[in-house]
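User: Hey, my collaborator sent me this sequence without any context and asked if I could get a structure. I don't really work with proteins. Can you help?
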Amino acid sequence: MSENDNQKPTVNLDAHRGLTAQRDTDARRHQSDVRADQDAVREGQHLLEKHLFAGPATTWAEAAEKSAYLLRLFAATGEAQDPRYKQLIEDTIADLLRLARDPA
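Assistant: No problem. I've predicted the 3D structure and written it out in structure-token form, which is a compact way to encode the shape of the chain:
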């Protein structure tokens, strides 16, 4: 007799709840997923910043990476929402990345 023979069948509790309770449960699950995604983004940002703050850039590509990161941080602020600034930020990041690839 295996371990699976002693287990009872799984009960789908969602099927026994009312519609409101199911919606509340779905909302809690969604919030949990969102929190997990936000935690992963924060961890990724922390690791990136650790890399960027490790020391001075030794190549133009590293300097461009740091500059682009700072521009993206600024782009997320209220001051940077002016369409002219948004375009300037996008153009500058594109220039930095292009020039870092081909410094000549």
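In plain terms: The chain has a mean pLDDT of 84. You can pass these tokens on to your collaborator as they are.
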